[in-house]
Amino acid sequence: MFTKFKCKRILRFYFFAEKLNDALDNLIYKHATAFDGYHDGTYYAEKICELIGAKRELSELWQYLDGIMEKFTKGERAVLRFYGSMRCGIKKLSEENRREVKRVTVKFSRRAKLPERFNGALKIVADYYCLLGVSV
After folding, report:
1. What are the pLDDT digits (tens) for 32-56?
2. Most exposed of 13, 15, 53, 107 (fewest Cβ within 10 Å)?
3. Taking Cα atoms as reference points, which of 126, 4, 136, 132 lies closest to residue 57?
């Protein structure tokens, strides 16, 4: 089960990971073309390597989550995407919709027992969470 991470944060990462990937690509490009006179090339090379490592870890987490999502129906994935893109809680939803969101998110959280090997990726998601732009 999820400990520090909430289900919504994981779902937002899963469904909007392409935005985070684009942002990381932009940061890599920025560091690759940067010259400020204070740092040498080694400094920027290390930053680029860190970002590439972050992308690799996030890719592994996304593939793990994708394997879990394959088992859900199209309708259940739509509910999870809707919940992940919400900016607020589910209190304002109708009782029926609230029940459906709860049912599917509990089903997801039971299947997505994130092993310790994803702790690094989850920290990266937390660090770059603001870059997960949501477009519904």
Report:
1. 888 777 888 889 999 999 999 999 9
2. 53
3. 126
